[in-house]
């Protein structure tokens, strides 16, 4: 009986490993949960932390997270249209994405606060942080540079954490959040497409008709000052010419105004 054994080739094994690690073959990064990572008593944990913290402790929150996500391609979605996947309760996936993004930023604050807190505070922070730790299991993209942050009190941050956990809890095991892995900013007002209505076009054309008038007003003061400056220069030259003695000519002494008054008296 002859047994054929396949020869082991290091080069082939290395190529196979590279193919398996290739991003194109791994597919879309997954962000789904088979069991709910949000406990039923998360509100109690947040309240315990809120009672112990200074309510006006300053933290920052993102002020320009996008409300309506970009067009996505996937099951139940159409390219070039807004997301049409509506849940029975009226919650859209894009709304869940924004809640997930807010928890990503809040979870980073919990980690940062633990580094400066005492032992008891650390336990309370870790208890709340555990409720949001599931966001670290998803391969989120780095934070975009377009995010803007505003300062608020930590009490507001804790209230927002509670609100987002309430919204996500019914859907955390029923939805795949792989479309939410990139935080998005609201488009800047300077990049928005202007409206195409006739009234809007008239409003945008109005400043163009005012530009010649504005230019005239800007040029009017220099135009008026130029003849005055020329007249002053000419008058000064004539005065210098009159007061300059000719060769051999001697000017009479100039008397001061006080001497003239004494002679008249």
Automatic annotation (TrEMBL):
One of its GO terms (molecular function) is cytokine activity. The chain crosses the membrane at residues 213-234. Residues 1-27 form the signal peptide. Keywords: Kinase, Membrane, Signal, Transferase, Transmembrane, Transmembrane helix. GO terms for cellular component: cell surface; extracellular space; membrane. One of its GO terms (biological process) is positive regulation of cell population proliferation. It holds the Pfam family Flt3_lig. This is Fms-related tyrosine kinase 3 ligand. The lineage of its organism: Eukaryota, Metazoa, Chordata, Craniata, Vertebrata.
